[in-house]
């Protein structure tokens, strides 16, 4: 079979690229080595983790907050098995939806491991031992990433686990040790903390969420500590050993002293690495970096002119929505259009509660770049909507150019800021000023009023409700 485009990998980047290319008139095939479509995000990442976060959040509200709303629930309990089953159902429905979209858009789906025979031919090795070769005028590599580990850690997938195993445990840990205070560790740590586990986070950097604005990291640490999570920053892990049902983690603190942590499970969440195993990039002549990333130009084109790469296998943040945008960019570029993607405006989100969201530059980045800026900050506690819902933690911070007033970065901690951040992203896409945001009439009472108030604080230093 010959196709205009072959996409290897059916995660958010791959399946969106395939759909957009088909919409624009290409004959498209997509190759997926697993039996379900959707890649890491839909199967063992974004979607299942959010399902468990929502379920655990409902339970946490029942035991911690219902009473203050006048709702009495005597001795609330949870069925962890049902939570996991619900999560599996959400995943099944979502991945089934991708299969429907493939059929709707006349995209041929091949199940098996895709590997290059040369720059235009891809071999599909199927689970039954058979294989076939298909030909593509253009090919997109969208094979995603896998969890990283540290060289001295042995992941046994039982007690020493990655995010994949953490989403399908048979029990709630008594004491979950989390190595890495980034997005994955904090989200899954939150799930099990809400369900009664002790959770200890061990982070090498001075703060959790080390790539985010320092005010965000500080606020999130304060809030999660209040919820009972324990944090150990500036700790470099030196060993992880399993003894039966016990896991012992040793680390060196800032003073150079050895510290020991003991739990029944250890989640290793130290990032992710590009997944190109078995892809046969050498046969196609595609260059990769020392870190295993596929090298691409501004059009996401590799050194082989008809082969492109998107998502976690290329430079930039490993985010599903970034991969989706790149998939659209490549499909439209191949169709002769002139798409663009602004990597500065890809939002970053942490789905703890309160949520964290950010877009644009952090305050530290502006300082390092020597940009003259002004900052406006507004507390969620000052909002009528926050008082009504009881979600008082957090803030919105707007960073704007000191001379032009253009919004350069927005950072949020609070209820529903994962959705709220898009107001900032849209404004920044059109190069809005802080004054522009401050002068837009926002509904009342809403969480979004915090954006208006923070923008006004950045613009003229005079928020109205603080």
Structure description:
The protein is of the alpha/beta class. The chain has 14 helices and 22 strands. It has helices at residues 12-23, 39-44, 46-64, 80-104, 163-166, 183-194, 214-226, 281-284, 320-334, 363-368, 384-389, 417-429, 434-439, 449-460; strands at 2-8, 28-32, 108-111, 113-116, 121-125, 131-141, 145-147, 160-161, 175-179, 198-202, 230-232, 236-243, 246-252, 258-263, 265-268, 272-274, 307-309, 348-350, 355-360, 373-379, 395-401, 407-414. A hairpin with a 2-residue loop joins strand 12 (236-243) and strand 13. Helix 1 (12-23) runs parallel beside helix 9 (320-334), helix 3 (46-64) runs antiparallel to helix 4 and helix 3 (46-64) packs parallel to helix 6.
The helix content, as a percent range, equals: 25-40%
Counting structural domains, the number is 3
Mean pLDDT: 98
- The CATH homologous superfamily of the largest domain is named FAD/NAD(P)-binding domain
Number of helices: 14
Principal-axes shape call: globular
Major beta-sheet overview = 7 strands, mixed
How far apart the termini lie comes to 65 Å
CATH architectural name of the largest domain: 3-Layer(bba) Sandwich
Strand pairing plus helix content: what structural class? alpha/beta
- At the first level of CATH, the class of the largest domain is Alpha Beta
Question: Approximately what portion of the residues adopt beta-strand conformation?
Answer: 15-25%
């Amino acid at each position: 079979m010959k196709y205009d485009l072959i996409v290897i990998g059916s995660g958010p980047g791959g399946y969106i690229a395939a759909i957009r290319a088909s919409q624009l008139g290409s004959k498209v095939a997509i190759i997926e080595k697993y039996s379900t479509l959707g890649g890491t995000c839909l199967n063992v990442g974004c979607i299942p983790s959010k399902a468990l976060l929502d379920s655990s959040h409902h339970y946490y509200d029942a035991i911690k907050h219902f009473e203050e709303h006048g709702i009495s629930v005597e001795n609330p309990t949870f069925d962890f098995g049902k939570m996991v089953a619900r999560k599996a159902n959400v995943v099944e429905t979502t991945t089934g939806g991708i299969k429907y979209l493939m059929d709707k858009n006349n995209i041929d789906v091949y199940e098996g491991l895709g590997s290059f025979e040369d720059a235009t031919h891809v071999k599909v090795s199927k689970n039954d031992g058979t294989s076939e070769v298909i030909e593509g005028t253009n090919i997109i590599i969208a094979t995603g990433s896998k969890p990283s580990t540290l060289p001295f850690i042995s992941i046994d997938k039982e007690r020493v686990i990655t995010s994949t195993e953490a989403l399908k445990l048979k029990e709630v840990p008594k004491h979950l040790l989390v190595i890495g205070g980034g997005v994955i560790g904090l989200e899954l740590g939150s799930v099990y903390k809400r369900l009664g586990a002790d959770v200890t986070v061990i982070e090498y950097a001075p703060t959790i969420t080390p790539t985010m604005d320092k005010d965000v990291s500080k606020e999130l640490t304060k809030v999660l500590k209040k919820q009972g999570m324990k944090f150990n920053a500036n700790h470099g892990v030196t060993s992880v050993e399993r003894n039966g049902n016990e896991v012992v983690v040793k680390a060196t603190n800032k003073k150079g002293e050895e510290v020991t942590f003991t739990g029944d499970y250890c989640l290793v969440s130290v990032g992710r690495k590009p997944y190109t195993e078995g892809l046969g990039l050498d046969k196609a002549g595609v260059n990769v970096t020392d870190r295993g990333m596929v090298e691409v130009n501004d059009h996401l084109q590799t050194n082989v002119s008809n082969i492109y790469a998107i998502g976690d296998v290329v430079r930039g943040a490993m985010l599903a929505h970034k991969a989706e945008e790149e998939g659209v960019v490549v499909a439209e570029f191949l169709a002769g259009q002139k798409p663009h993607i602004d990597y500065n405006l890809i939002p970053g989100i942490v789905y703890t509660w309160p949520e964290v969201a950010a877009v644009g530059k952090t305050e530290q980045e502006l300082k390092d770049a020597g940009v003259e800026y002004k900052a406006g900050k507004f507390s969620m506690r000052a909002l009528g909507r926050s008082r009504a819902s009881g979600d008082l933690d957090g803030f919105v911070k707007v960073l704007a150019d000191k001379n032009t007033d253009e919004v350069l970065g927005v950072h949020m901690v609070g209820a529903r800021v994962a959705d709220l951040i898009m107001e900032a992203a849209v404004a920044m896409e059109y190069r809005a000023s802080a004054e522009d945001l401050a002068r837009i009439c926002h509904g009342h009472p809403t969480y979004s009023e915090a954006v208006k108030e923070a923008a006004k604080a950045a613009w003229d230093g005079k928020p109205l409700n603080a």
